[in-house]
Fold these 2 entries.
Entry 1:
Amino acid sequence: MRKFTAPALLVLVLALCSCSLPFVTQVPLQTVPTNVGAVYSAKPTGVTIVVRDARPDPIVLGGLTVPSQPDRILRLFATDKPGQVANAFKAAATEAVRTLGFKEGTDYTLELSIRAFLVEAYRASGFSTANCIGYGEIESVLKSSDGAPLRTRVARVVYWEDTTPVGSFDEVAEEAISRIFAQAAWEATVRIFQEQFAAEASAASLDQALRVAQGTGQEVDRREAIFWIGLVGKGDPAVEKALLDLFRTSKEQNLAEGAAEAMGMLDLTNTRAELEAVLSGSKKFAKWEIDDTECVWYLLKPLSLLGSPDLDARIPAKIEMRSKLTDLLHFLQTGEMPKLNAKQREDLENGKRKLK
């Protein structure tokens, strides 16, 4: 369903760059709630969240291309109000802090700076899934009540989210792009608190998240639970078994991919050989198709997190979107964003003028 069939994929950037294309859709980002409950014990201390949108130009969210015009941006998605990206990050970071057991207050301040963010969207036809890929670089600074920095870290994140719009293109931004921003804020928030406080999730909370992930509820809720397991499930022996089971047997591609991603996020080195075997084609599971760009990415990402070398050379020979996968790996390794071609820069500039 999410397989790429075109020889190229659009790159769209949160920057500004002119022609009759693209169409512009202005939509609000949606708040994405965390549905896993409090994973750490409640604490009496409180946290203030501050978000700075430090991108060179914070207007454009992302864009869409199709196979017939792979080098053009046909549609831009933009926020309908100023400051929405920062507000979306703040709402998601606040949810993450609550999930970690903290409350609102002034004992600590978490400052998140969105240094860069890029969102790509691709749709094979007018009735197919919109594949959205988000890259981000986020600086997190945790400060004490007197403003003294306690810890600073910079996160590079890449997420792949899908939406099949039914009523309008608004749904692409409201669903997939909103989830991308939420996941970035969750990961940036959780990681710096884990480093500062070395907290471990309770067995009961992880058990609840695993029940959601392995249950029969909505796929989006199950995928979110898997993502949170990838953030907080380190050290629990039941987690590796559950993730491997989902990776091998899930009937939903999205959940199998999420399990692979979580194995990399948790540094589960015991899973590396199996990930490599599926990527090479020597081991096959139902929902893993190594001619599918999305599937291959969800093998490359955990292997990159686990430190596997020479991943560019391991991309299957017949993959249609090799350049996109090498771009993603290069970003994770260096933080360098892919470059736009001249037509894409022209489309982005034209879209910017339409927003005025």
Entry 2:
Amino acid sequence: MNRIAVVTGANGQDGSYLCELLLEKNYLVFACIRRSSQNTLDLLQPILPRLNIRYIDMNDAISLSNVIREVDELLPKYERCEIYNLAAQSHVHVSFFIPDYTSECDALGLLRILECVRQSRHCKKMRVYQASTSELYGDTTGYEIQSETTPFRPRSPYATAKLYAYWISRNYRDSYGMFICNGILFNHESPRRGVEFVTRKITRGMSELVNGTRTAPVVVGNLDSKRDWGYAKDYVDGMWAIMQHTVPDDWVLATGSVHTVRDVIECVSNRINVPLTWKKDDSGLEYAEDASGKKWIVQSSEFMRPNDVTYLCGDSRKIRDVLGWNTSVTFEELITTMVDHDLKDTEKR
């Protein structure tokens, strides 16, 4: 395809899968990442020579403008440019501690991109995808399943910032006729998921305990939070499909089934063949131990959100019916894939 793609947050789980997909489709890919003193390019290493790396910060309008201007100069030779905004401070719990930064990055960061696109010479040849989130729904009381028309009631600084990004996307689309889409993605995981997120924290931590590279139990928060978990690679396929549609729109991507954090732990337990028993301490917090009395999981109030979202389940019939998108793995297959990866990765060398 004679197209350009700009991917912000390219070095994350979704960004790395997306860059691979776009390269397979012969896009000229600008992979935009935030500069760090740490090596943050691990997930991109296999495809690094084929990417155009650009350093940006969502709080720095000049860095974003520079990338859009560079693309704008190239566009006369290309069919179009697809901009995928995946960059964000995406950890919900952390957003309560850094609400100002989260808002600047997740809300106003997108606004800066939209303004750059709006003012570009080839605005009509640019399409923008905004990575929205199921956290927008927040308090889902009265709504057993959430679709594109379900009311948003965010319950965290992260979700509130993302709600601004959702509505500013629609505002620019309606006001200026720009091609802007929101992908309302429910939880999606993979072996590339950051270890600070609960599913990967569990698969990684329990794998380390199996391999003897860890001695402390895995610490978690609410064990009974229910989430709709899918495979990240499927969701990246959905992002691309959304951008190929003839008209810009907003889409929910989800599996339609829910599981708890406890279910994740028990799925891992089954895979590693270590039966666990749930117990409570004197304060009422739960922990899981094996037959020898060794603790594998410990619940801590430190990881409880001040205003928790307890239930999310997505209705993705629209994208399935209109664009033919579908999911490829079950919850159990997803967790098993993550465990197998982490078991191999944490073996003693």
